[in-house]
């Protein structure tokens, strides 16, 4: 075995020397550098290094304070009085108010991202990247919300169940609004403002529908924003591990999902158009 390996090494060494001699024998005007070829780098194949996510201190502190407010309100008499008085005033002013718009409005910022791209107004990421980021944000939002709901066991204002805190609709709405803002903040700040307006309306409607306390909505908003920021922070690492050396038009990817209706989680295998 050693003898064979030595013969093979000798053959490769001889071959290299022969090639070098052939190159040296070429005319002086011949550019021999073109004979040497290099393996294309990941950048040449269409892959670019992921851009790291950055946020201001206020961008993290504000939603964290909102989430903290909700937790404090669970046992603070003063803040619980704010919840009760707000409920009373809403019921006195709008005793018969009912709507289901909040069930759909929570997703409107996400719909806007894909609609804008379809219209040619492109955001920060391509279809694959933004879809994976959205999936991560949805998993973080829904998974955390459902876990806290079952842990805190807070009764809803209408007494329908004990899954009031935090507001899932509001968390989803603000996660969606932050997603829209992140994708289009470099195009125009008004897209983010519109998304947050829709999210705020969703939270208000949850209170008007007597499904949540004010503190539920405030905490849900903070949780949703932080969840999307976490998705943007995690994704560059995922992009580097999964897609390094691959074109941005990779046609398939495994993405996590969470279904809050059936309390189930898993992985989905998704194909993207080239």
Automatic annotation (TrEMBL):
Residues 131-232 form the Phosphatidic acid phosphatase type 2/haloperoxidase domain. It comes from the Bacteria. Coiled coil: none annotated. Pfam families: PAP2. Transmembrane segments: none annotated. InterPro entries: PAP2/HPO, PAP2/HPO_sf. This is Phosphatase PAP2 family protein. It comes from Chitinophaga eiseniae. The lineage of its organism: Bacteria, Pseudomonadati, Bacteroidota, Chitinophagia, Chitinophagales.
């Amino acid at each position: 075995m050693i003898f064979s390996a030595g013969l093979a090494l000798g053959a490769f060494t001889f071959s290299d020397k022969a090639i070098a001699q052939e190159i040296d024998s070429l005319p002086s005007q011949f550019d021999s550098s073109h004979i040497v070829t290099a393996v294309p780098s990941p950048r040449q194949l269409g892959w670019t290094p992921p851009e790291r996510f950055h946020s201001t201190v206020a961008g993290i502190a504000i939603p964290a304070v909102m989430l903290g407010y909700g937790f404090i309100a669970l046992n603070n008499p003063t803040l619980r009085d704010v919840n009760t008085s707000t409920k009373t005033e809403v019921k006195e002013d709008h005793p018969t108010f009912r709507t289901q718009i909040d069930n759909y409005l929570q997703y409107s910022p996400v719909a806007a991202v894909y609609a804008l791209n379809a219209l040619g107004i492109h955001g920060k990421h391509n279809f694959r990247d933004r879809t994976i980021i959205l999936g991560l944000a949805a998993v973080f939002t829904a998974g955390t919300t459902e876990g806290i709901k079952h842990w805190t066991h807070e009764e809803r204002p209408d007494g329908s169940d004990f899954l009031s805190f935090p507001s899932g609709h509001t968390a989803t709405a603000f996660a969606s609004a932050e997603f829209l803002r992140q994708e289009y903040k470099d195009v125009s700040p008004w897209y983010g403002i519109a998304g947050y307006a829709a999210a705020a309306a969703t939270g208000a409607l949850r209170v008007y529908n007597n499904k949540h306390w004010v503190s539920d909505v405030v905490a849900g908003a903070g949780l949703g924003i932080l969840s999307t920021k976490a998705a943007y922070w995690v994704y560059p690492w995922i992009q580097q591990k999964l897609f390094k050396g691959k074109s941005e038009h990779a046609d398939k990817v495994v993405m996590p999902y969470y279904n809050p209706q059936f309390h189930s989680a898993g992985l989905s295998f998704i194909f993207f158009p080239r």
